[in-house]
Amino acid sequence: MRAILVGVWGRDLSKEFLKESIKELKGLVQAVGGKTLGYILQKKDHPDQKYYIGAGKAKELKEIVKGTKADTVVFDDFLSPAQVLNLEKLIGVKVLDRTDLVLEIFSRRAKTKEAKLQVELARLMHELPRLHGKGRDLSKLGGGLGTRGPGEQESEIRKRLIKKRIHKIKRELEEIKNRRREQRKRRERSEKGEKILRVAIVGYTNAGKSTLMNTLTKKGTLVADMPFATLDTKTSSRVVYPDFKILFTDTVGFIRKLPPELIESFKATLEEVQEADIILHVVDVSDEGWLDYINTVNGILKELNAHEKPIIYALNKSDKIVEREEEMYHLPHPAFIEGNAVMISAEKKWGIDRLLEKIIEVGKEAEVYI
To answer: Does the residue 186 lie in any domain?
Structure first.
């Protein structure tokens, strides 16, 4: 994929925020093996219904694509099926939106049956409204970016098949959710009498959640410098005192403009966040946009009705800012946070004891442990 990126800013979105979002979109393109040739930004208060960026800008984009020999245009927003169709006809290359990229990455990262089902459900829900007038080969759904079917004449048949498949996947995911609830109940019965804190680890993608999970529990979790390195929920325990146990659950990373299909389809996984006693919000403070990322994650927590739970901010990757652990404690970052915040480096294991102490302290204050 040789891509030109397109972003729009206006009344509800600043140009600075858009630039950060485009930077993230470039990372998503790279994650699917593509190369970004350049990007264009446009100020527009209201998206054009036909071309999103308007006919004039779309024609300019066509010339840029021709001049750079790009084969794909990626929009940093969600496009309607009609907009995709109109843009592809005008520009003459494949047109994708942010959701297409995220779904492709998720499909590549999914390993367990549950994760694969959740990704397939999200993809089908995204593809269904795009069948009208275009047609897509049902056998190719989930097979690659922007695959197209033979034509409109079979779209109604495909719609029925896809709706049937969606219904079946939802049934299977509900069964998985029920099994998880039963496992949780059995675990609670077996742990009766113990003091237990359930801590859900959340954060922006690539913030270091899996590294922190490994450091806290000494259990192996995939760690990679890429978006959505792991999609599967993992729970491990750490005994702090002979009669005190903390159960840590790692969750999928969040991003700006998380596709609504993914929030819906991943409810079975994100249920772990809703069931947690404490939320451990991991933040990469070495990234200049770290405060914006906090707001993004907190916005998604609000959508999950989990924003009122006790939150501890683990301000991670401090080793990228200072050279020694003692210098870390003089960093000003916690002063920008309203609530509990601890400076750490999960990779260097700096500040981990302080973080555990804070988790226990917050748990006792809130009286959330069993």
So the answer is: no
Does one domain contain both 164 and 278?
no
CB neighbour class for 113 (10 Å; exposed up to 12, middle 13-18, buried from 19): exposed
* pLDDT for position 247: 86
User: Other C-beta atoms within 10 Å of 38: how many?
Assistant: 11
Does the residue 124 lie in any domain? yes
Give the least confident one: 47-61, 67-81, 168-182, 211-225. Answer: 211-225
Considering Cα of 275, then 280, then 286, then 291, what sign does the dihedral take? positive
CATH of the domain at 50: 3.40.50.11060
**257: nearest Cα among 17, 16, 11:** 17
CB 84 within 8 A of CB 104: no
Per the CB < 8 A criterion, the answer to whether 57 and 89 are in contact is no
In a domain, 185, yes or no: no
Return left, alpha or beta for 50; rule: phi > 0 is left, psi -120 to 50 is alpha, else beta: alpha
Shared domain for 12 and 34, answered yes or no, is: yes
pLDDT tens digits for range 182-194:
776 666 655 555 6
In a domain, 105, yes or no: no
Q: Is the dihedral of CA 131, 136, 140, 144 positive or negative?
A: negative
Q: Which pLDDT value is given to residue 118?
A: 84
| Spatial distance between the Cα atoms of 58 and 56, rounded to a whole number of angstroms | 5
The domain of 147 spans: 110-169
pLDDT tens string 273-295 = 877 899 999 999 998 889 988 98
CA 266 to chain centre: 10
Task: Report the chain's terminal Cα–Cα distance, integer Å.
Answer: 52
